[in-house]
Design brief:
mainly alpha, about 65% helix, disordered N terminus
Length: about 300
């Protein structure tokens, strides 16, 4: 069978799955649940195969934390994934203990998200660095929503009681939350992009009705040509999981989009010349899958 024929068969199988599940109101049918779990398994296996012997991915702090987060999300009960996650955490803890140049915003927030998810003690200096970068306006648009969510977790006392936390840290976190929220809204309005992140930010700050807007955005993305931003798909999944109408069928189209974009090797991303982009795309795609398959994935903890 030629590669072209295999691609055609793959697309036909996805179309058949979509037709099979179209009647399910808001829930994935058994076939799509199985396909989704298999996609998670392939994606996790690809990430694990890319891990270096020292526990990192490309000796990069941000990539290593993102990959570990993805493994936590979709393969918590798989021994090989648990081992890879443990190796990554050991690498990150050792790296943070060493004297090194200041971490970038994406590295800081990825480490914080992983440590908070795994209930690992967060070094106060990491929080202080994140505060300083946000206050200085050094937050790239792509990192703004993960940072906002992390700041909200910190604001709610996730690390407030830890020894070594500077006085006034809670008040500073609250101030930076408002600053970052304004930035996310402005970036979204000015660029016309980051719409999924904008909706997630509004939900995180207490907006009661953004589910319909998220469904409309998902519909737009389904009909758009070109590549997808897997980060946006993740935040749309988060919004829809929390706020979609009970009769909405958002899981099926979102899963179809992710299945269609998964590559033969199990990963996501189309840039063969830049493995870093593929790793980032794959990590976010897996985290999006974890949200929409929340009731279908086996729980390891």
């Amino acid at each position: 069978m030629t590669k072209a024929t295999m691609r055609i068969c793959r697309r036909l199988s996805v179309v058949l799955l979509l037709l099979t599940c179209a009647a399910a109101a808001g829930e994935l049918g058994a076939s799509l649940q199985l396909e989704g779990r298999m996609a998670c398994q392939r994606g996790a296996a690809w990430l694990i195969a890319c891990q270096a012997a020292d526990g990192s991915w490309q000796q990069d702090t941000a990539l290593s934390a993102q990959a570990a987060l993805a493994l936590v999300a979709v393969a918590a009960d798989v021994p090989s994934a648990r081992a890879a996650r443990s190796q990554a955490i050991a690498y990150l803890q050792e790296s943070l203990a060493q004297t090194a140049p200041p971490l970038s915003p994406d590295a800081l927030v990825a480490v914080l998200r992983l440590f908070l998810r795994e209930d690992i003690a967060v070094p106060p200096k990491i929080v202080a660095r994140l505060h300083a970068q946000v206050a200085a306006g050094e937050t790239p648009a792509r990192d703004a929503m993960p940072i906002l969510e992390t700041l909200l977790l910190l604001q709610r006392g996730a690390v407030a009681a830890q020894p070594g936390a500077p006085a006034g840290q809670e008040q500073e976190t609250a101030r930076l939350v408002e600053l970052l929220y304004a930035k996310i809204m402005a970036d979204g309005e000015n660029s016309g992009e980051q719409l999924g992140e904008c909706l997630a930010a509004r939900m995180a700050m207490g907006a009661a009705a953004v589910g319909a807007a998220a469904q409309q955005r998902l519909k737009e993305l389904r009909g758009a040509a070109g590549s997808l931003r897997f980060t946006e798909l993740y935040w749309l999944a988060r919004v829809l999981y929390a706020q979609a109408d009970a009769e909405a069928t958002w899981r099926t189209p979102l899963l179809i989009m992710l299945l269609e974009k998964q590559r033969g090797d199990g990963g996501w991303g189309g840039n063969e010349e830049n493995p870093e982009i593929r790793l980032v795309d794959s990590a976010w795609a897996l985290q999006a899958l974890a949200v929409l398959l929340a009731e279908a994935l086996p729980q390891g903890e």
